[in-house]
Recover the amino acids of this structure.
């Protein structure tokens, strides 16, 4: 009886075992696990290819950019095949971490290209973390900035973990199918070499034989070396100063008795200066100032930065040195380099800084050479912030008039004054009010309430560019109106852009040139500038001179030395 029952059950057990697979799991579950495993492997492969092929600028990220065979993948697969078993896992782990660092570098490059119009410098650019946190805090609040920082840290850890897992998973798959992998590597290598030799392209301008990641790393090696040596290179440049020992009575004799106002207009670049709207405003402004007895001359300077880093441009113009990174800036402000401000101070001017953007201690002020610094806290503003800018430009100019330029019986003043209303995010933008209405800035509450909202403007790149242009128009109108209202025979106004804005506002590729203009009633002052071939008017034309911003100090001191 028992034998008969066993005989009857045996086929059933064998059938169930066959359906359940070798591990005793049902066949359906085993097939699901296999499908999931293959999908994960495929995703790991896609991630690796995506990282190797992704460009570092948004405009180059197109479907055609991925129609390539990356040599790094072919060489990496071949290397993992020939390595001994004990070395394979550590090498794969290092390759995964390197891949994670590569995509982080590419993301940073992309972000820097979109904001500062240049690639990320892995040696010198970490100082931008604090500047980025300050900007984020001013726009999103402290809690928002902390949340952003946490997201970034978690994201970096997740990327490194994900890329390492991907390479390890692909390595196991390659070894499990060693023969097929070896054949695939041989075919891929042969095809890559042939495509490289023939210059094969499936998409115009995109070679099939890709080695973008290798080129990216090779390009960075000399730049990293230069960045590592930059500190000593810049230290030598600081020591070369043609005006260090110039006697005080021989400095700036051509401006004796004048009030010299040096104004940086935030993000005022050559691109916006060429728009019909800004050119029409400048032409009308030239006529208006001519009617008030003023003439003007203009040219271009090439800024050391773009998209941000205004303080680098300020330091470059004032020191006569090319200051294009934070390390150079710190080196400069700890030196005894003669700045333009200090040259005026030594020559007998009262040197002041009107700094609406300074909201905390500013120890480097002592380096530049000011007798008085007016920071945001002591400009008496009682109105709302306009985006990043703590106060409107017209208010800043009105306070300068009240505190320094207007009082009778004063000594000649040299003032440095950044105007910030054209700083991103360009919403809301102030509007002009009557100079008698400016007061303590309370009038701007209504102006702010009626302005555009950031979240609305930034939905559309065209609106961003339009509002940016409007902000420049406001800043220029503030200056023109100030000269009309308060300009006198002693006033010499110099205004310039610090840098071009971020690419979203320029619409793409752009130079680093910024306009610079000098305004005065004195034909002798303008005659010295005319001798430098600057063009007439508030806006330079296409044929105007273009100087490196670092050359301005020496040329200016030379032009007005006699």
């Amino acid at each position: 009886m028992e034998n008969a029952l066993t005989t009857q059950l045996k086929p059933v057990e064998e059938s169930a075992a066959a359906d359940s697979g070798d591990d005793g799991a049902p066949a359906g579950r085993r097939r699901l696990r296999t499908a999931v495993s293959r999908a994960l492997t495929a995703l790991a492969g896609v991630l690796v290819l995506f990282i190797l092929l992704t460009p570092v600028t948004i405009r180059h990220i197109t479907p055609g950019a991925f129609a390539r065979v990356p040599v790094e993948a072919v060489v990496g697969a071949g290397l993992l095949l020939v390595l001994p078993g004990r070395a394979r896992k550590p090498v794969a782990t290092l390759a995964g971490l390197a891949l994670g660092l590569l995509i982080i570098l590419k993301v940073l490059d992309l972000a820097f290209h979109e904001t500062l119009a240049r690639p990320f410098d892995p040696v010198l650019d970490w100082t931008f973390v604090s500047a980025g946190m300050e900007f984020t805090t001013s726009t999103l609040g402290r809690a928002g900035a902390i949340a952003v920082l946490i997201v970034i840290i978690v994201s970096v850890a997740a990327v490194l973990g994900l890329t390492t897992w991907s390479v390890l998973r692909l390595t196991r798959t390659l070894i499990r199918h060693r023969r097929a992998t070896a054949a695939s590597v041989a075919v891929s290598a042969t095809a890559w070499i042939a495509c490289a030799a023939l210059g094969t392209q499936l998409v115009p301008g995109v070679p099939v034989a890709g080695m973008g990641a290798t080129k990216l790393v090779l390009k960075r090696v000399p730049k990293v070396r230069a960045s590592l040596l930059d500190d000593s290179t810049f230290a030598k440049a600081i020591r070369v100063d043609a005006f260090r020992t110039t006697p005080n009575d021989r400095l700036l004799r051509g401006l004796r008795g004048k009030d010299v106002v040096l104004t940086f207009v935030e993000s005022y670049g050559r691109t916006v200066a060429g728009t019909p709207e800004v050119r029409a405003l400048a032409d009308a402004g030239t006529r208006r100032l001519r009617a008030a007895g003023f003439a003007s001359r203009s040219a271009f300077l090439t800024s050391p930065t773009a998209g941000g880093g205004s303080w680098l441009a300020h330091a470059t113009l004032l020191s006569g040195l090319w200051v294009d990174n934070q390390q150079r800036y710190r080196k400069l402000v700890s030196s005894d380099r003669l700045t333009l401000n200090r040259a005026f101070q030594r020559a007998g001017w009262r040197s002041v800084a009107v700094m609406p953007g300074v909201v905390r201690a500013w120890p480097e002020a002592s380096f530049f050479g000011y007798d008085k610094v007016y920071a945001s806290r002591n400009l008496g503003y009682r109105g709302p912030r306009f985006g990043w800018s703590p106060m409107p430009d017209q208010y800043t100019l009105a306070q300068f008039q009240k505190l320094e330029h207007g009082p009778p019986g004063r000594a000649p003043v040299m003032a440095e004054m950044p105007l910030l209303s054209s700083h991103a995010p360009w919403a809301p933008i102030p509007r002009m009010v009557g100079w008698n209405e400016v007061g303590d800035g309370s009038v701007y509450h209504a102006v702010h309430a009626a302005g555009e909202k950031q979240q609305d403007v930034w939905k559309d790149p065209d609106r961003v560019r339009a509002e940016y242009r409007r902000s420049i128009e406001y800043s220029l109108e503030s200056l023109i109106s100030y000269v009309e209202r308060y300009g006198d025979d002693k006033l010499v106004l110099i205004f310039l852009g610090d840098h071009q804005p971020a690419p979203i506002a320029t619409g793409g590729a752009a130079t680093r040139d910024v306009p610079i203009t000098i305004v005065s009633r004195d034909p002798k002052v303008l005659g010295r500038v005319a001798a430098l071939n600057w063009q007439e008017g508030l806006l330079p034309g296409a044929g105007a001179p273009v100087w490196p911003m670092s050359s301005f100090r020496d040329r200016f001191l030379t032009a007005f030395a006699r």
In short: The chain has 20 helices and 13 strands.
